[in-house]
Specification:
Elements: H1 2-26, E1 33-37, E2 44-51, E3 54-61, E4 64-74, E5 77-83, E6 90-96, E7 102-107, E8 112-117
Antiparallel strand pairs: 1-2, 1-8, 2-3, 3-4, 4-5, 5-6, 6-7, 7-8
Length: 119
Amino acid sequence: MNLILKYLRLSLFTFFVISFTACANLFNSNVTGIWIISGFGSGTKMQLQQSNTQVIGYAYVDGQSQGQVVGQINGSNITLQLRSSYSPVITYTGAVSSDGNSMQLTAQDGKQLTLFKTG
């Protein structure tokens, strides 16, 4: 009887671990790709590359690099910093949509950006 209970506990534990891992993966967005920044014309974009929770990339205006983008993603929550030699570091926080095709960001000064994934 004890052996059966131990097996049952182990089976339930394994089920919950696998279920938790599967659910966690459902909420991890992948932001790798090209993102158009709404309201600035089609030439304003970010090119992002995600590795685990780290995000790196570049921001462009009309094909000209405007600085490096670095950040973190945790589920759908994202923080990005735009680092440029032209201006101080700007930090954006926000969320990636559930379908992974858009994100809403807010800068520390309250300005909001909407980005749409193109590739």
